[in-house]
Amino acid sequence: MISLSRLEQQLARFPDRTIGLIGDLFLDRYLHLAAGVYETSLETSLEAFQIDQVRNVPGALGTVMNNLAALGVGCLVPITVLGNDGHGYDLLGALQSIPVDQSHIIQHPGRLTPTYTKPLRLTDSGALEELNRLDIRSREPLGQQAANEVCDRLSQTFDKVDGWIVLDQVNEPEWGVVNHQVRETLVRLHRANPEKLIFVDSRAQIGQFSCGVLKGNQAELTAAAETSGDAMEDAIEALMAKTGQPVFCTQGAEGISVGCPEGRLIRVPGHPVNGPVDIVGAGDSVTAAVVASLTSEATLKEAAEIGCLVASITVQQLGTTGTATPEQVVLRWRECGPA
Q1: 3, 11 Cβ separation under 8 angstroms
Q2: 30 vs 133: CA distance, rounded Å
Q3: Can you name the residues that pair with 121 across neighbouring β-strands?
Q4: Is the pLDDT of residue 337 over 70?
Q5: 3-state class of 216 per DSSP?
Q6: What 3-state class would DSSP assign to 25?
Q7: What is the pTM of this model?
Q8: pLDDT for 279
Q9: Residues 6+ positions from 115 with CB-CB distance below 8 Å
């Protein structure tokens, strides 16, 4: 496992990093139901949920940014498209607390700001229970004008950051910010500057990328590579053949496997944790940790090890998408590293 001195050396470099991000930025809105308060609607005779707390948190691409900021990364440069609406206003306000350059966040009147509204209530045991989520987003392809502006801004900023994170959150092809035009622009920019890190995380379209370091879970990678069953190694090999670059496969509690173009497969075990866990956002925390590490001259194995340390911390934070600070990462290393 990575030594403590090497870990601290990597973490100390994070504040000097500038990381670009392109993809789908959501608003996660948590509505806390007032405990023990009940009211019936006179109009419908249904219970009218009473809210006593509202939390607005950047989600999707914002979850990655929250994790990068918590790890101490100095500057974040997102390129995305929001609506010119109230949810967009609240989302931009929620970004104020982290080191974000907002100059490349496009507000387009033809789009809805993607929003996940999550009602939460306390159970009798005192735990938070999430009720049915309410989703708002544009259910159509990104318009040509907005797509052109996204690609122009990507071209303008590509060489100005230490590395790029591409997050394709939307399952439907072409409906998100990262469409075929963005993928083609990434290929062109990569050919001009092949040393620049492009780290790609796509829920449903990862097989459509022909450049970049790809990252997904086992199901996503095997589906993209069209391999049968749980043939993880075959999927990693097929995707590496397409991009010529490493592939990261997250495997939950089992850890991370990294395929290297020269043929090696690195297996980094996860860290067992006690008590209940919430895996929402764990993959995004791995993305943040791995990219911050790779742009700070970590090896593939070291980056995966730091990713596992961070994920073991974030999954223990319930009812929210967790983050990890450098101090927490060092503490977790002390708990499990020497053994």
Answers
A1: no
A2: 10
A3: 129
A4: no
A5: strand
A6: strand
A7: 0.93
A8: 73
A9: 26, 27, 28, 29, 87, 91, 135, 136, 137
CB-based contact 212:168 (threshold 8 Å): no
Pairing of strands 51-60, 25-33: antiparallel
Query: Is the distance from CB of 78 to CB of 35 less than 8 angstroms?
Result: no
Amino acid letter, residue 129: E
**Residue keyed to tokens 């790609």:** 200
Q: Tens digits of per-residue pLDDT, 87-146? A: 999 999 999 999 999 999 999 998 999 999 999 998 888 888 889 999 999 999 999 999
Judged by DSSP in three states, 185 sits in: helix
Tell me the β-bridge partners of 80. Answer: 105
Cα 243 to chain center, whole Å?
21
The tokens for 230 are 């749980």
For domain 4-28+57-116+138-336, give the CATH superfamily.
Ribokinase (3.40.1190.20)
Per-residue pLDDT tens over the stretch 43-74:
999 999 999 999 999 999 999 999 999 999 99
The token pair that represents 296 in the structure block: 């700070």
* Cβ atoms of residues 215 and 250 within 8 Å: yes
**Alpha carbon distance 27, 112 (integer Å):** 11
Distance of alpha carbon 308 from alpha carbon 7, whole angstroms: 13
Q: What whole-number distance in Å separates Cα of residue 179 and Cα of residue 204?
A: 12
27: closest CA among 114, 147, 144? Answer: 114
Distance CA(318)–CA(109), nearest Å, equals 35
CA distances from 28 to 7, 31, 108, 191 (A): 32, 10, 19, 36
Percent pLDDT > 90 in the chain is 84
Burial 91-124 (b: 16+ CB within 10 A, else e): bbebbeebbbeeebbbbbeebbbbbbbbbbeeee
Q: Are strands 213-217 and 197-202 parallel, antiparallel or unpaired?
A: parallel
182-218 pLDDT tens trace: 999 999 999 999 999 999 999 999 999 999 999 999 9
| 3-state SS assignment for residue 245 | coil
